[in-house]
């Protein structure tokens, strides 16, 4: 009987993401990743030979998490945009203390998660009837607003800036193209 596939890489990646989000990339040491994933330290080196490999796994893992969460949003463009905004409130305590997943991806030097989010947002605005250029401008505005609100919430240690920005952008999306 074949041996079941190991979930070690997934556990190691999740541990590296959590450590990076809560303590910065420097906190994602091999020993701490191994401990958090409950695997021997030597196993980490099998999957991540260098710190750059850890950074790539963090960025890719975050990209996958965010893509999965966007895939779960409603098909209607306006509802999907609103759902995207509200997703920032589902992890508001973690965002206030640790920042957003996109900010964590930036901490390891990858803009891929931001580019994917922008592309997805632009597609939703195009679905609402905006030209590609107008949809991109709106996508940039929305992402800058919500990520900025999250950054300010983290800096102040309080949720209000993010809550207000999400509420403002929800109204803005509700009136987009009407």
From TrEMBL:
SUPFAM superfamilies: Homeodomain-like (SSF46689), Tetracyclin repressor-like, C-terminal domain (SSF48498)
Annotation: DNA-binding region: 29-48
Keyword annotations: DNA-binding
Stretch forming the signal peptide: none
Domain HTH tetR-type: 6-66
Protein's UniProt name: TetR family transcriptional regulator
Originating species: Demequina litorisediminis
């Amino acid at each position: 009987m074949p041996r079941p596939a190991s979930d070690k890489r997934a556990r190691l990646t999740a541990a590296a993401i959590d450590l990076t989000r809560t303590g910065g990339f420097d906190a994602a040491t091999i020993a701490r990743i191994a401990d958090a994933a409950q695997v021997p330290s030597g196993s980490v080196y099998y999957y991540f030979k260098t710190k750059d490999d850890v950074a790539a796994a963090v960025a890719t893992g975050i990209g996958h998490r965010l893509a999965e969460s966007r895939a779960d949003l409603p098909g209607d463009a306006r509802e999907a945009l609103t759902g995207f905004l509200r997703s920032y409130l589902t992890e508001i305590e973690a965002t206030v203390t640790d920042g957003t997943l996109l900010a964590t991806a930036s901490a390891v030097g990858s803009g891929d998660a931001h580019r994917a989010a922008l592309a997805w947002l632009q597609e939703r605005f195009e679905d609402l009837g905006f030209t590609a250029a107008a949809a991109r401008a709106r996508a940039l505005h929305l992402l800058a607003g919500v990520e900025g609100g999250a950054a300010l919430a983290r800096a102040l240690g309080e949720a209000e800036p993010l809550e207000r920005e999400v509420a403002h952008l929800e109204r803005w999306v509700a009136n987009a193209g009407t």
